[in-house]
Design goal:
mainly alpha
Length: 58
């Protein structure tokens, strides 16, 4: 298989995976939208506290 054909195949595969992921995410958001919102808030507060503590270490 030539490099260009391999590149096209990998790109197609990557797009397919992302598309499937988006479909799953949109389904989850419709079903558990508030849950995901809470999760995102939790992750944001966790990452900000992590950044804050790492800023203190330096």
């Amino acid at each position: 298989m030539s490099f260009q054909a391999l590149q096209i195949f990998v790109t197609f595969l990557f797009i397919k995976i992302i598309d499937d992921g988006l479909e799953i995410r949109s389904f989850w958001f419709l079903e558990f939208g508030w849950l995901e919102f809470e999760y995102l808030n939790l992750m944001a507060s966790f990452s900000s506290s992590l950044c804050g503590s790492s800023a203190l270490w330096t």
